[in-house]
Structures are given as C-alpha cells and as structure tokens.
Design a protein that fits this description.
The complex is a heterodimer of chains A (about 325) and B (about 240). Chain A is mainly beta and about 325 residues long. In chain A, about 10% of the residues lie in helices and about 55% in strands. An 11-stranded mixed sheet of chain A has the order 1-3-2-6-8-10-12-14-16-18-20, covered by helices on one side. Chain A has a 9-stranded mixed sheet with strand order 4-5-7-9-11-13-15-17-19, with no helix packed on it. In chain A, about 45% of the residues are buried. Chain B is an alpha/beta fold and about 240 residues long. Chain B contains 11 helices and 12 strands. In chain B, strands 6-9-10-3-11-12 form a 6-stranded mixed sheet, sandwiched between helices. In chain B, strands 2-1-4-5 form a 4-stranded antiparallel sheet, with helices on one face. The longest helix of chain B is centred in the last third of the chain and has 16 residues. The chains are: A mainly beta (about 325), B alpha/beta (about 240). At the A-B interface, α2 and α3 of A face α2, β6, β7, α3 and α6 of B.
Chain lengths: ~325, ~240
C-alpha cells in the first residue's frame, strides 16, 4: 500500500539523508510517510493504518487512523522536513481505535534551512485500551532562524496510554514553543518527556498540562533541559488530579551554564482526597561532584560538562 | 623521595584551620593508610592533593615526582596520573557504566576493557555495563564501579576515601583484591579509613588528629589507635597526648 508522488524520489532521498536514513531503510515493509514543505512525497502504509492527506498552501492536513484492534509491530516512520526556507503548517488528526497499538517515530528535519517556521497542530484521540507511543526527533541546522511551534490536544479514554518523547539535542533550537494538553480518562496513562539543549540566544518554552480526571488515571511530565550561553528556558508543567486514585508526578531538570536562564513552574492541583501528585525540580549548574569526578579521570572541564549534559538529555 | 610529598601544607576555611603544617611522603607503589577520628582532616587531605576547587587555597606545597602541582587544576593533576575515589561516589543520570569506565581509560595509559575491570571488582559486566550510573545502583555498586573506572585509568596515585564504606563483606574482598592489583602494577594508594580491617592492607600508616600529623609508621605501630579508640582533641591543632597514649 504505497503512494508516491511522481518525480519525487530524489527529494525523498535528500530528505531522508538529512536524518541518516534512506528509502532502503524501509525495505522490510515498514510504514512510512515523507512530507516536504506542503508536499506529501510518499505514503507507504500497512494493514490497519490509514493516512489521508491534503496539501494546503502552507503545509499539509493529515488524518491518521489506526483501526480498532490493529497492532502494528514495526514503528511507523514520519519524516517532516524543509530543505529550503519557509512555513510548514501541519494539521494532524490522529485517532486510535479500541485496543489499537502503534509506535510512531517522527523526524523533523530542518538541517539545511535557516529561516523556517514549523507549526504542528495535532488532535489525538485514543479510544479505550489504545496505546500510542510517539517519538519526535528534531534535526536543526546550526543557524538560529528556526521556529518550531508544536501544539497538541490529547484525549485518552479509559485504559488507553499515550507516551511521547520530544528530542532536540543537535543543532540550534532557535525558538521552540511546545504546548500539549491531555485529558485523561479512567485508568489511562499519560507520559510526556522533553529533552532539549539550547545555546546562544535560543528560546525554549514548554507548557505541558495533564488533567487526571479519570479514576486511577496516571500522568508523568518530565522535562530535561540544558541551556548555555544566553539561551532561555521556561517550563510550565501542570498536573490536575480530580478523581479518586489519580496519581501524577512532575519532574523538571535543567542545567544552566554561562549567562543562560531557566525557569521551572510546576503547577500541582489536587481536588480529590484520594488523588496524589508530586513534583520535583532541579535547576542549576552542573553538579560539582559529577564534574570533579570526571575531571579526576582526566577529562577537561568542557569535556566533563558536555558528558554530564548529554547524560541528562539522554535520561 | 616520595611520589607525592607534602611540604608544610596548611588549609583554613573561614578562619578555621583544617590542616596544620602537614609534611608527609607517600612512596611509589606502596599502600598508605591515613587514619584518625572524625574531623581530623583526612578527607580534606585527599581533596587537597587532588586539587578540588575549595581546597586550592592551602599554603605550603605539594610535589608530584619532585615537581610542584600546587597551581594545577584537577584534570591537569589527573593527566599526570593522580585520581580520587570518593567516599560517596557521584550519580550520573543518563551515563552508562560502560561509558563512565571507557572515558576514564581513554584519558590514560590503561589498557583494560570495561568487561575486564568489572570482573575485577566482582560485578557481572553483562548485568551492569548497560545500566546508568544513577540511583538505580546501590551505593556499594557505585563504589565498585568507581573503582573499576580507576583500574581502567591505571593511575600512578589513587586517593581512596573510605574504600570500604557502604559495601558488603563480599565487595570488601573485591576491593582488597583490586588494592593489591594496583600496588602490584605500580600504583601508589593513599587510603582514608576508619577501619582496622582496611588498615591491615596498608604498608604504612599516618595518624591525623585535628588537622595535624601526630604519628606515622608501620601498620602495627598505628593499629593501637584503633585498640585505644583515640578520643578527639578538645582543642584545635594541638593533639591531646593522653588520647594518643
């Protein structure tokens, strides 16, 4: 089930090469979709996965359905990219049917562009028992003119699970403004993790909000951020628990070097006597004992700091 | 001439004197124990030799192979072959045991693989090398992993702060085995210890009390310190002779 826009093979190859992949990477029948700017270059699907797309003047509208009961064993790959400057606005509706299960890996590549705005507006709906794991890795150039603005509204019905990881640790951030909101039904599980490294005058804004309104729903919001030079980070993590047995945890770790600035604003709002939400925030320079341990093995201060930051971002 | 020589090293923090004119020689390829009551300045001595930032303001001099290292940073001292094992090793989120050990070996003449050094400290490489050096490991496990990284580094001098603290009896035997291996391979070991059992593995011993060196000699000579349960001095820098009798 493959649909490729004629004459786009070289564009697909150029896009995939920026993330160290190739068309042959998918020879095993893995589902994959490549979108460049406002053009859908390729859609290769598997049974139970439906993707319908509509090109717009500034991007693409995409509807994704994983049909009820479908379990997709191999990850589904998405590659969004722009090799030239401009605006890419992706509107995405994702629906997982009852007990559907899949793992999406999304690469967003702006490795050559210098003035790009990438906007993602996603609506995600997980029916009962569905499980959606979403990993999004950004590959940016070392220039600062990239703006990434991902917004998502997530609806988790009972016993469903949504886990997402957002990673931007290579290249310049430019401006990133993440805004995720999730409504968690009974016994559902929400896990949001961000790993971002900013430098120079990069700006990182994250707002993640989970409403644990279903009984025995669970949520964990984790942000691991490193900022250097004059970079700035502001992290709002908000968990509200309004039902019996709802349990949540907010964890924010930020390493600040040079003249960089970081703020963590955890909001924990519990409105039921049998709900429980905790939060933890650690912001500061590199831990001196970690630094001194590595330096006492012969690493320079810069090497030791880099190793510690990369460790935090891998966590 | 020792590989490490202290020449009248004194150190004060906020007008409180922590080390008092310490002059000590540590001999190449020998195991030395530094004993003394809590607050005697033993860990401070190790941190001062390693050159940790808060301990650089000392007076007097520290020589390594006859040359002053007083102005050298931690990593410069490490590149000469001096390293430190902490009493409570650091935790590293996101750093695998394998990488932690490998980076120590990369910067030195050490030739042993992560697998070999893990076996030497009694930890199964298959079980541990791909784990993070974080809170999922016990203090004793991290202690042995730190020791493994030191074997990988194969330093000329290792400062070991309380090598037996927080480890079980089996692990202690592994640590003693590694101490002997380091000595046999030319490493000078300087152990800070409260333990008579650890002291037995040393060739020489020093007794500190309130920042001053009050005795030195063979292990047999100094072991009476443990038998008599040295009482900390009641006044600074002038050891109470009765406590040492």
């Amino acid at each position: 089930m493959s649909k490729q826009t004629p004459g786009t093979q070289s564009a697909i190859d150029r896009l995939l090469s920026t993330i160290n992949m190739h068309s042959h990477s998918f020879d095993d029948g893995t589902a994959h979709v490549e979108i460049h700017g406002n053009q859908v270059l390729n859609t290769t699907l598997v049974e139970g996965l439906k993707v319908e797309s509509q090109e717009t003047s500034s991007g693409v509208d995409v509807d994704i359905l994983v049909e009820a009961g479908t379990i997709i064993e191999q990850p589904v790959y998405f590659c969004f990219g722009m090799l030239e400057n401009g605006l890419q606005h992706i509107r995405m509706n994702v629906r997982f049917g009852t007990k559907a299960k899949a793992h999406f890996i999304s690469h967003c590549s702006f490795s050559n562009a210098t003035e790009v705005e990438h906007i993602m507006d996603a609506n995600i709906h997980l029916e009962p028992g569905a499980e959606y794991r979403y990993f999004e890795r950004h590959v940016h150039s070392m220039d600062s003119g990239i703006k990434v603005i991902p917004k998502a509204k997530v609806q988790l019905e009972e016993h469903s699970r949504f886990a997402t990881e957002f990673e931007l640790i290579k290249g310049r951030v430019g401006l990133i403004d993440i805004d995720y909101e999730a409504e968690c039904g009974p016994h559902s599980v929400l896990e949001l993790l961000s790993r971002i490294s900013g430098r120079q005058d990069d700006i990182i804004k994250i707002r993640e909000a989970g409403n644990l309104s279903g009984e025995y729903s669970r949520g964990v919001l984790t942000s691991n951020i490193a900022v250097r030079n004059q970079a700035q980070a502001v992290i709002y993590n908000e968990l509200t628990a309004t039902a019996e047995g709802a349990v949540g945890h907010v964890d924010c770790n930020e390493i600040v070097q040079d003249e960089a600035q970081a703020k963590a604003i955890p909001i924990v709002d519990v409105r039921h006597p049998k709900a429980h939400v905790t939060h933890e925030a650690a912001i500061g320079s590199v831990d001196s004992k970690q630094l001194q341990t590595l330096m006492s093995r012969g690493l320079s201060e810069d090497e030791a700091v880099e190793m510690i930051i990369q460790g935090l971002l891998r966590k | 001439m020792g590989i490490i020589e202290l020449k009248k090293v004194s150190l004060s923090f906020e007008e409180q004197q922590i080390l008092f004119e310490l002059s000590m020689d540590f001999w190449e390829g020998h195991i030395h124990a530094v004993v003394g009551p809590n607050g005697a300045g033993k860990s401070t001595l190790a941190h001062t030799i390693m050159g940790l930032p808060d301990y650089r303001s000392h007076t007097g001099d520290i020589l390594f192979e006859g040359k002053s290292i007083k102005e050298l940073s931690i990593d410069e001292r490490a590149k000469l072959g001096i390293t430190l094992a902490w009493q409570e090793p650091a935790r590293f989120n996101g750093i695998k045991v394998r990488e932690f050990i490998r980076r120590a070996g990369d910067k030195s003449s050490g030739t042993k693989s992560p697998e070999e050094v893990m076996n030497m400290v009694g930890l199964d490489p298959d079980r541990y090398l791909d784990r993070d050096v974080d809170t999922t490991l016990s203090g004793g496990e991290r202690k042995r992993i730190e020791l493994a990284s030191i074997v990988a580094m194969h330093p000329k001098v290792v400062l070991m702060d309380e090598p037996d603290s927080g480890v079980d009896i089996d692990a202690i035997q592994s640590i003693f085995h590694v101490l002997e291996w380091l000595k046999d391979h030319g490493t000078t070991v300087i152990m800070i210890t409260h333990s008579g059992e650890v002291l037995k593995h040393a060739d020489h011993a020093f007794l500190l009390c309130n920042g001053a060196l009050v005795d030195k000699g063979t292990v047999e000579q100094l072991s009476s310190y443990f038998e008599r349960k040295c009482v900390p001095c009641t006044h600074k820098n002038v050891p109470d002779e009765e406590a040492l009798l």
